[in-house]
Design brief:
The chain is mostly helical. The protein is built from 6 helices and 2 strands, in the order H-E-E-H-H-H-H-H. It has a two-stranded antiparallel ribbon.
């Protein structure tokens, strides 16, 4: 692939990405419009034909509850712990602190991370030789295209 073909391919890629974003936004707006029409008509489901394809459109309500955790924690004290489940977003934000908290339980819930292995080798905690036959290297191509401000 020469430079011109590469430029043409990237140009098309960027155009498609922008179209996909626009289409996704339009799809969301149309979904809201369908829901509004169905609500107005008092329908929970509707069968429609577009071209020769039959479609079933369903409208349902979901309820999302957001708790004020500081108020609940204050009111319930130690009983508040009975309401909690693992929040993966919060776990991710804890990073290195989480490893410290989990301690010995890391054997049950942890997996080696490449960066941590590298750091342990650099610090002399483990030797490179100790990893012989204990891992396999898999490579996959990842293409990333990001806009750069000029």
């Amino acid at each position: 692939m020469n430079a011109q073909e590469l430029q043409t391919t990237l140009t098309r890629y960027v155009a498609l990405r922008e179209q996909a974003q626009q289409l996704e936004e339009e799809r969301k707006q149309l979904s809201k419009a369908l829901g509004a029409h169905m609500k107005q008509l008092g329908l929970d489901s509707l069968e429609l034909t577009v071209g020769e394809q039959n479609y079933v459109v369903r409208r349902s309500l979901t309820t999302r509850i957001r708790y004020d955790t500081s108020i609940l924690q204050q009111r319930l004290g130690p009983r508040y712990l009975h309401l909690l489940a693992v929040d993966h977003k919060k776990l991710k934000s804890c990073g290195d602190q989480l490893r410290e908290w989990l301690g010995a339980h890391l054997l049950e819930v942890g997996s080696p991370r490449r960066q941590l292995v590298k750091e342990a080798v650099e610090k002399g905690l483990v030797k490179v030789e100790e990893f012989a036959g204990a891992f396999r290297r898999e490579q996959r191509a990842v293409v990333s295209v990001t806009a750069r401000s000029s």
